[in-house]
Amino acid sequence: MSVTFATGFSAAGVAAGISAVAGKKDLALVVNNGPLDAAAGVFTSNRFCAAPVVWSRKAVANGHIKAVILNSGGANACTGEAGYAQSLATAEKVADLLSLSDASDVAVCSTGLIGELLPLDHVLSGAEHAYAALANTAEAGADASHAIMTTDTKPKTVELTGSTGYKIGGMVKGSGMIAPQLATMLCVITTDAVVSAGQLQAALAVATEHSFNRIDVDGCMSTNDTVLLLASGASGIEPDKDEFNELVRQACASLARQIVGDGEGASHDIRITVTGATSEQAALACGRAVAASNLLKCAISGNDPNWGRIVSSLGTVPTDIAPYDSNKVTVDVNGVRICENGGAGRDRSEVDMTGREVHIDIDLNAGDAEATVWTDDLTHEYVHINADYES
Amino acid sequence: MSVTFATGFSAAGVAAGISAVAGKKDLALVVNNGPLDAAAGVFTSNRFCAAPVVWSRKAVANGHIKAVILNSGGANACTGEAGYAQSLATAEKVADLLSLSDASDVAVCSTGLIGELLPLDHVLSGAEHAYAALANTAEAGADASHAIMTTDTKPKTVELTGSTGYKIGGMVKGSGMIAPQLATMLCVITTDAVVSAGQLQAALAVATEHSFNRIDVDGCMSTNDTVLLLASGASGIEPDKDEFNELVRQACASLARQIVGDGEGASHDIRITVTGATSEQAALACGRAVAASNLLKCAISGNDPNWGRIVSSLGTVPTDIAPYDSNKVTVDVNGVRICENGGAGRDRSEVDMTGREVHIDIDLNAGDAEATVWTDDLTHEYVHINADYES
């Protein structure tokens, strides 16, 4: 279903010849048919952000977006003015097809190899093809979610329904180069609820902070991360604000969780929950430090709940950021307390590591705040994907 | 030669039955025979620092150390009061053997698995064995450098001679869990120069900052890092202060470089030099961000000079830490400018990646400061070592 689950949206996904994989769907178009065109966006904080990020950040600034065109097969990052001109030409093409007077009603997203211009003629002819294929069907939404995939092994979508009948749909691509700072990867979320751009932006900011900003596949922040939230108002329903914000949060959390589940080469999804912290920021800093440990991620891929590698990562977090006493820290892996008071607890051979999910629960015993982050293990397959293929 | 290159020192390396590898040399003893016993030390900043670090930091605080006992086969980290008692008992045993009145004249270093106590009876009987084997020969120094190895594939030593005839020798172990903050791994450097503890500490602080603190094998800071610098004064030579500091710096740089050369599973040693920065700190922050990129390290292991992964890592460094204009950045890999003005330069197929060393030169074009860091590539073998073995 993806982005077409919410009424008032049509979508398409086509093979435009941008990707090096012949015949792969590589161009998606999402159109908001209204009556509203409220929109919000969150973007990468990478200083080498891509041309489409520069364009889309400006386009969404006034709170109005009528269409999003997304391509895989090329990031259009580090491509200078020529790359920016490509993003502009792409937006103008879509505006022309949709008879929009202003190209800045069109957001542009790209993903793929950094440093090369796109085959613009393929993008523009693909836009025509996608325009002709636009539909508000489940199949069209699925096509769009396939067209944005790169090293992803499966499409990632979400569908939620509010208590009063409005709907939220979404799609995301992401598998590697995942370590967000403000946002991550290409994501389009749609709703037919009647909401203002201001409310969308507020909901999206909170939702991304607690979802895309709390996953880390490989510690590498992308140049192209974009999360867009579009409202058509087609349901005519004004949602309860708190419920709407919660559903946007759930949609982002589901999509972020799916990214971890499809992390490059991963054999385990790892949930790290830090409790007993003096602040949420302290808990988050500890969780992120553990999630970034290559040694731990290798151990998990070998089914070894190596708590020494967990606490040695915790020990790198400065005291002023996360006050705690190392002699009071406990660590449970999949429910077995293998580290107690900063030292050995139950034998780690008691931990069942056969499942896909690994749950690491760290109690700092220093306060009442907590945070959860998700990451993947580090496998031979991750090295294979990133050493032996060009991406 | 190792630590016995400088006169006034004797050493031994023996198999004490601490390591799980039967017959492996796993206990080293280094004794300063004087006439001086000046010493300096730098230690890990990890908050879960090991018992021997707690002990040795206190022991060296007064500027006097007469002997160092080092074991592989167990880190004695996260072992609480029982672990500290083991370090103390080990120091007391050595003091007893050497007829020293104060156990705090003996530093203790351990490396191996975190979270388990040492087999203390083996350590103590090994200390007797090592004491009996003490010699000031090249072979004895070599034995010591072998006894501290864990996943290291080769011993790492250095020998330097001052212009007036004094000598500096050293040994280090380190291969994985290398990402220093203040110091790294187990290192003992000896000199027969006549220098005070204060001068030793000053020389060591500067030298470690520019050597061990500028290498990063896997981003993981150890709980046990210790660097000790001992002076016997046996040459009777008071060195030129600047020359002595420079030689200590060279000794640390050589040993740090050897750690990178023996990084777990590495197939390439990567030198990252950042020039044109507004400050050395800015250059260092940029170099470290690039050195930490798993995606880049995988690309290098696949002989791909993927500059997109270099600039996307640079782009994560906050502007207030390293001001630069992303449109002015250049990147050379092995002398080929593959990124120019933040975009594509010469074709990356021109880069010869066949050598062990890879040189990445980044010019921020923002100032006159520079810094160099070293790291390794990320290979299947690294994952194998850390996923499939327990360490």
Task: Walk me through what this model shows.
Two copies of one chain form a homodimer. By secondary structure, chain A is of the alpha+beta class. Chain A contains ten helices and 16 strands. Chain A has two domains: 2-261, 4-Layer Sandwich (L-amino peptidase D-ALA esterase/amidase); 269-388, Roll (Ubiquitin-like (UB roll)). Chain A has helices spanning 51-60, 80-97, 120-133, 138-147, 197-209, 241-261, 280-291, 294-301, 307-314, 380-388; strands at 9-14, 27-32, 38-43, 67-71, 106-110, 156-161, 167-173, 186-191, 215-216, 226-231, 269-277, 330-333, 336-340, 343-344, 357-363, 369-376. In chain A, the strands form three sheets. In chain A, strands 9-16-11-15-12-13-14 form a seven-stranded mixed beta sheet, sandwiched between helices. The first copy, chain A, has a five-stranded mixed beta sheet with strand order 3-10-8-7-6, with helices on both faces. The two termini of chain A are 28 Å apart. The relative contact order of chain A is 0.14. Chains A, B: Pfam families: ArgJ (PF01960). Chains A, B: It is found in: Cytoplasm. Chains A, B: Pathway: Amino-acid biosynthesis; L-arginine biosynthesis; N(2)-acetyl-L-ornithine from L-glutamate: step 1/4; Amino-acid biosynthesis; L-arginine biosynthesis; L-ornithine and N-acetyl-L-glutamate from L-glutamate and N(2)-acetyl-L-ornithine (cyclic): step 1/1. Chains A, B: It catalyses: L-glutamate + acetyl-CoA = N-acetyl-L-glutamate + CoA + H(+); N(2)-acetyl-L-ornithine + L-glutamate = N-acetyl-L-glutamate + L-ornithine.
